[in-house]
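Subject: sequence -> structure tokens, single chain

Hey, anyone have a minute? Need the predicted structure for the following. Not urgent.
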Amino acid sequence: MIERLELALSRAKRYPDLHFAVLFVDLDRFKVINDSLGHVAGDRVLQLVAHKLQQLIRDTDIVGRISGDEFVILLEAIEGIHEVIRVTERILNEMTVPLIIADREVFVTLSIGIVINCTAHHQASDILRDADIAMYRAKLKGKARYEIFDPIMRLEALKRLHLENGLRQALEHQDFLLYYQPIFKLTDQEIVGMEVLLRWQHPQRGLISPVEFIPIAEETGLIVPLGLWVVRSACTQMMAWHRIFPAMADFRISVNLSARQLREPNLVQQITEILNQTGLPGQNLVLELTESMLAEDEEGVVALLSELRSHQIEISIDDFGTGYSSLSYLHRFPINTLKIDRSFVKRMQGDADDNAIASIILALAQRLKLSVVAEGIETATQLHQLQTLGCEKGQGYLFAPPLTAAEITARFHAQYSPHVLNHDSIPDVNAAR
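Reply:
Had a minute. Here:
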């Protein structure tokens, strides 16, 4: 296949009207098949997929398996992009039919990256690289689809690679900062807790938003050590505040968990060790999950959360109402708090219809004896509407943006009568590093 690809590239450079295309095909979630059915079944899947691909292309084309679950198809003498798309869609449609492995139906989907009109490339490896980049984009967009390469993808891939390398170095050097967004009682606007927000202090680019680097950390597995660092640093900082401000003894600090962390077999042990080492009581720690994380493995997640709750650690559902389609999990999972997503709060402009979803969530939470925190409160109207509906707590820029540990300390001094008056004596975990 590589030899044929080199020849096709050479001919296309001599005859500009002679076009060809390369399809980089990857099986989605093939590891799950190997892990659940065994490698013999996995090998059979590869054989059946290869056979299907060969049946779906012309005799003049060629398909080759270049690694574990990756195939490359070379379509020569094509008329145009419409012909390539027709072949690609035929492949994707054919894969909707389940494979029969040992009398069992196995559903396999493919992600496909396409490179067309390859005269700008100098060698076969360049074409395969760009087709691979397009395939990766297809996976990022949800799998079971195709993407056509354009040069911008390569620039984004390089940017992503640099970001991943930088992230590994940042984790080694702990080039991260924690910010704290206060959570207030809506009745008197006193701080009762805070959510921890992670920022990357890049040596050249300054602060980098988690929106940019968390997906990469998730994919590479770096989110596991990074997440534990966040939990440890947050607990250490909270204990420092507890020692200085005894009135904060009931405060809870909320830390977001990722889906990757949730799959760690020793997650509970790691978190309880951090609590033991820092001295923070379990009831002062809140772990926030999204709804979609609960849907992946209900039985396993129920067991995990129940074990965390046995250590008095509280569980909060972030962005409630935007993910999981079923409300049945509210009865099954040991949950303490629902957080009303900011998109629902943003709609609250005074009209009763605008308040409908928030009102339903609050009524549901009250019936199930769950606490509620409203996110993204930005206007006095939103605050008034939430107060009218009986919402207990909230956070948002109306009260305070995410703050550094030093800024939070200053607010505590204003709210309480501290045992010390020297702000410099309050430890700052970020500064301590």
